Amino acid sequence: MIRTVTLELLRHGPANNQLLSTLTPYLALCGNHDAETVQVGFEHVQLMRRMRALRYEEGSRQARAALSEAADEVGRLIASIRSLTAELSSAPRSDRGLVHLRLVLSASELSLLPFELVTAPSGFPGQGQALCLQTVMPLALTREVRRVAAATVRWPAVPRILVVAAAPRGAQGVGGRPISPVPLRAHLLAIRRALAPWLVTNAPEEFGRHVTVLPEATLAEVREACAATPFTHVHVLAHGYGSDEDGELRYGLAFHRDEDRTQVDVVSGSRLAAALRCHPNAVEGTELGSPTVVTVASCDSGNVGSVVAQGASVAHELHEAGIPLVLASQFPLSVRGSAILAEVVYRRLLRGDDPRLLVHDVRQELHVTCPDTHDWAAIVAYAALPPDIEAQVKQARFQRARRAVDTVMARLDRAQRPSEEDLHTLEAVMHSFEAAVPDEDTPAQRVKAYGLLASAKKRAALLYHGGPVWPLITGGGASMAMVMRALPGGSLPPPPAPGGPASVEGDVRPLRAQLASRTALEEARSYYMRAFRMTGNEPWSIVQWLALTAAIDPLEDTHTQESFADRWTAARVIAEDTLALPAVQQVVWAHSALAELYVLAQVLPEGHRGRHEMRALAERHVDDLLALVAEEPYPNARFDAYSLVRQLLRYAEWWWRERPYLRALPTALADRMRLRGVRVRWESVD
Fold first, then answer.
1. Beta strand 26-30 pairing with 36-38
2. How far apart are CA 682 and CA 367, in angstroms?
3. Other C-beta atoms within 10 Å of 368: how many?
4. Residue 306: which pLDDT band, with cuts at 50, 70 and 90?
5. Which residue numbers delimit the CHAT domain (predicted)?
6. Please, what CATH class does the domain formed by 537-686 belong to?
7. Given 88, 360, 609, 663, which is the most exposed site by the fewest CB atoms within 10 A?
8. Nearest CA-CA partner of 299 in 324, 342, 335, 340
9. Contact at 8 Å (CB) between 187 and 382?
């Protein structure tokens, strides 16, 4: 649980047209404490001198001295806010979780202050250390513009990334020298590594489905791209560039000009925000599109410059325009630091981590890996997160973990024979998937999660062992000895090569693979039963429980047969009742459940009425399902037909492969569906 502490610094009057001054009073509000009046202890010109040094304009030695001086000066301002000291020190000593310090600002001149490098004053955790780096009480500091609403933010579970790069040759750096090229390749490789868990192949086309790159971007191209595609993340890689506006220094981003790409178009935050937040071409309505996250990897993208004219830094203006999370730099980033920023940010965001953890971790990573710079202090995070951000992040993490499982399975489907490393990877992503199930979900959400987990377990079981899971594999008559040797822990072996012997004397690998498959199916069966117990009125979960029971157990004793028959009857009644519902998709699912139930009727005790005309009834429900989905009554209706044929093939080619008297019916039904055009393969990974 992340604890949030909010500090608001307010001033009378408009946000602009004010310089920092020791005479200006600010109102500090923190928690439920009384408001306090605070003042900065330095003049505007003094801070500007420090900021020039922090931008390495006076050399590395001066930058280090300026870092220490600025940290102390801002630290004295923070130390004067007694209510903040009380809030941070109120946590129990046993609580060492992350603290999110929300710094809400209304005055542009306060955005100049490098709060991120402040030294923890007396009474704060980690006294004498950098507040954002100390580990006594890990702290993530974010800034926020008071006017930005966060209640409508929906955290994305499926990312679509736009990479915007620009380095016009006509731009001039310090001393009139041409600016250096931006490290686009390094950043794309960093994003590629972050996306790796969700890429089935290394094909550029697959990477292109996730990432769009504008290598020599103009602002018009950015707007066109955002109008054509609803991007969730935008990564801007460009040089910060100063320009004079009516005699006032402003920092923007050096983009390419439309009419001449060698020349500079200095793009302000407000212009960039207008390009990113536009009306999508393919969507009707009046709502503006907007990325959820924008990262600006450049120098001076977080620098305010003059505060006399309207507007603040690029990051400040992007956030003020309504973008929930903006990460930028207030000092120049090293090339290495910018690449690390891209990799850490996208690795953590794409796997569904909390953005507040990300802000803390990216500083730590930069501090460790870039010791000769103050890149860690350069990062500025503007964040307006919704009150339910933790719940949203958990849902996003669960969806990302599910897609990671889908990706690994798609890779293994392409491999002729999974290696031991492949199976280890599958085990790892399955464990992450199970661990990512949110605890606070509603019953309907948990039922869906259980269904997804069970489905993934079934697919994993097939990869562990492609043959029947009963009876157990034996060799040389030493079945019990082999079972005892196969049961102890250890790495799962690859399944035996296709066409190879089932087992040889002393070789427990096939048996271990079969036992791993059985274990996965038993876990899937458990999830299906948990789902059924939470609803009790949906047939799919109990039908799947019956299917896995028939696959795992021989159903030989009377008690097991009676229990199976009772549940079969209950499932049939629920499915037949569902046929009367008005929702077409529910009816399709009921026909699918009934077709499968009549396949399972083959293992019912002799004389059970469910065995009467089971083939004809199964065929009728298959035909009714196909007639419904042929009209596409709801989006992706044909996928439900594919799901049924895939399940029928599991009986025919996997669980009952060596029992021809049982596999004949599911084989015939699958053939019946294939002749009607139902696909037997579906690309499930985006």
1. antiparallel
2. 46
3. 11
4. very low
5. 84-382
6. mainly alpha
7. 609
8. 335
9. no
Radius of gyration of the chain (CA): 31
Give the C-alpha separation, 21 to 129, whole Å. 27
Over the stretch 29-80, which tens digit does the pLDDT of each residue have?
998 999 999 999 888 888 887 777 776 666 667 777 778 888 888 888 999 9
Q: Return the structure tokens found at 414.
A: 């392409």
Q: If DSSP codes are grouped into helix, strand and coil, which group holds residue 414? A: helix
Judged by phi (left if over 0) then psi (alpha if -120 to 50, else beta), residue 636 lies in left
Q: Give the Cα separation of 22 and 25 in Å (integer).
A: 8
pLDDT higher than 60, residue 262: yes
Separation CA 336–CA 359 (nearest Å): 18
Phi/psi-derived region of residue 223, left when phi > 0, alpha when psi is between -120 and 50, beta in every other case: alpha
Per-residue pLDDT for 488 more than 80?
Answer: no
Residue in the structure block whose two tokens are 């009986």: 651
Helix segments in 101-253, DSSP class H = 184-195, 204-210, 219-228
Q: Which CATH number fits domain 161-386: 2.40.128, 3.10.20, 3.40.50, 3.30.360?
A: 3.40.50
Domain map (residue ranges) of the chain: 3-145, 161-386, 388-535, 537-686
What integer is the mean pLDDT of 514-543? Answer: 93
Instruction: Extract the tokens encoding 349.
Output: 């965001």
Record the tokens describing residue 206, joined without a space: 């697959």
Q: Rounded to whole angstroms, what are the CA distances from 141 to 317, 332, 446, 636?
A: 18, 19, 33, 44
Tokens 């390094």 locate to 186
Q: Are 111 and 143 in contact (CB under 8 A)?
A: yes
Alpha carbons within 13 angstroms on the beta-carbon side of residue 153 total: 25
State the number of CA atoms in the 13 A half-sphere of 488 facing the CB.
5
